[in-house]
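Dear Dr. H.,

I hope your travels went smoothly. While you were away I took the liberty of generating a structure for the chain from your last submission, since the lab meeting agenda had it listed for discussion. I wanted you to have the full record in hand beforehand rather than looking at slides cold. The sequence, exactly as received, is reproduced here:
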Amino acid sequence: QELGDKVPADLKSSIDPKLAALKEKVGEAEPDVELLKKMSKDLQDELMKIGQAAYANSPPPEGG
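The corresponding predicted structure, in token form, is as follows:
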């Protein structure tokens, strides 16, 4: 939640459907493991973009 304000809306909107789809697949009685791996990787890639965006938007550390 702390990074939420620093994340561009377009990145947030790309994460939500992927996260919802992954949660739905995990909840299935017999989920496709390979599909879960692919979905997890896609989500991880999006989360890395968010991390990069948050880092780029954060102020530089004081001092040195």
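Two observations you may find useful: Residues 33-57 form the longest helix (25 residues). The helical segments are 9-26, 33-57.

With kind regards,
E. W.
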